[in-house]
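Case 180 in the screening queue. Each case pairs one protein sequence with one candidate compound; here the compound is protoporphyrin IX containing FE. For every case the pipeline is the same: read the inputs, emit a complex structure as tokens, and attach any notable structural observations.

Predict complex for case 180.
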Amino acid sequence: MMGIVFTEFFDMVEHRHGLRMSEQLLDAVAPANEGAYTAVGNYDHQDMMRYVAELARDTGRSVDMILAEFGEYLFEVFVRRYPGLIESAGSAIEFLGSVEAFIHVEVVKLYPDAELPHFEYPVREQGRLVMVYRSSRWLAPFALGLIRGCIAHFGDALEVRMTDLSEQGTRARFEITPVA
Ligand code: HEM
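Case 180 output:
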């Protein structure tokens, strides 16, 4: 998993829960590199899942809630780091509809080691989008957070509903519709 995911995760933990919590997570997980993460490095995906599980335990929330919260936080980080990628779209639906064919394609050019999920779009209509997530890893709640962050960023009156399709593998369906 890419270093930027780790460095931004610890930034979020420090902002929201304080430096003590970051130290607590590092003590509990005891990673091989002693927590010296750099944005351009590549690290064990399982370590991230251990930090998330530990933070969930320490804050009394579920792993899925932590992943979604982190996804939402990370979208704003992407807005600051890659403004050109995001401003090329005029709406949340337009942006989300371009993740598979454009956004993640650009990401792989920048970071050839990135491990990305795949999205299919069975429904693309005016004001409504369905995305089906498929990955070798179960990070669908993280995708949910990124989608929420995207909707908030564009300020569109949309809501997202996630359906777990994991009996068919690591898959989930996201339905993005106008607020009822
Ligand atoms: C400018 C916007 C975006 C950028 C720069 C970006 C970048 C990245 C990068 C660098 C990774 C790889 C992390 C790694 O290898 O460990 C990643 C993974 C991921 N991205 Fe994006 N992304 C963007 C938008 C989105 C959006 C809007 C979604 C949701 C619809 C999304 C869903 C995911 C998921 C779920 C993963 C985790 C990998 C997996 O599930 O297997 N991304 N993204």
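Case 180 observations:
- The chain has a mean pLDDT of 95.
- The two ends are 37 Å apart (CA to CA).
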